[in-house]
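chain below, 344 aa
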Amino acid sequence: MPRIAIEKLHEFGARVFVAAGADPDIAERVMTNLVRANTYGIHSHGVVRFADYVSHVRSGRVKANARPVIVKETPVITVVDGQWGFGQVCAAFAMQKAIEKARVNGIGVSTLHNANHVGAIGEYTEMAANAGLVGLGIVNGMGKLVAPFGGRERQLSTNPLAMSVPVPGGRPILMDFATSAVAEGKLKVARNQRAQIPHGWALDKHGESTENPNDFYDGGMLLTLGGFGSGHKGYGLSMMSEIIGGLLSGTGAAMLGTRLANGCFFMALQIDAFRPADEFLADVRKLVDTLRATPPRPGIERVLIPGDPEAAAEERHRREGIELDDVTWQTILDAARSVGVTYA
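prediction:
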């Protein structure tokens, strides 16, 4: 399996997207999101998606140089039309508008419609945290992948949620997870690696539990977060993501027959609007330190907070490079050759 340096992977991917027709700044933005996901260990949203993105540009599904536009605006709300461009460009724009409004009015909210796959949404809530604000993201789409709790037919998407909070003297708290048992991309990675998946991730087309990722792509379905035991909780979160991320933004929902898209709801909160920021951040620091100091269970090295695994993965990948399975790497090389680019 090849191991690619982060900077090399980013540069190569950006060249491919430019060759496919994207402006350089758009290509850079997309690769920043994809490579960040791999760097953080979120391989389901990293370059495993690369070949699909190139294919979507070539087919016209993604308008490579489309720029998001504002269709409605108030002092605290921005409604953004992504113009069917790259989702990463659209989502970063929408969150930036929320941040700008929060800085002035204490809160900023953006919705986004007509956007392609936005990638790992934690990047956008982390934008807010890195600016000293609290960030929230709710996303629906892309397509029917998940069975509602107790059902055996796809109706919902993976519908992720993300929140980020600044931590003084450290990295932001970062929570980013699908409301399905697992992101669909993790099955794609497992399939490429010819690996089995854990019990409780998916059902086959007959509604039976499966540990074979190929069964999902043969008409199977993902379970909601919590699996067979407490999947009703993930089901409730997923429904609300469809409503707030999809219906409120005007994107719709795949189960209702609308075009495949990511509908987004982003919120940024200015801490000083609620209480003195230094007091809040000091409390956050104490909370984080207290949780990390909790005695671990037998077999557990230490107690983590959301964002710690990503920080550890980033440190390792910056030192060692990103290891890609042979199938994923070959699809990337094939996509590059389809637009006349070779890896060097």
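The chain has a mean pLDDT of 95. The first strand starts at residue 3 and ends at 4.
thats it, cya
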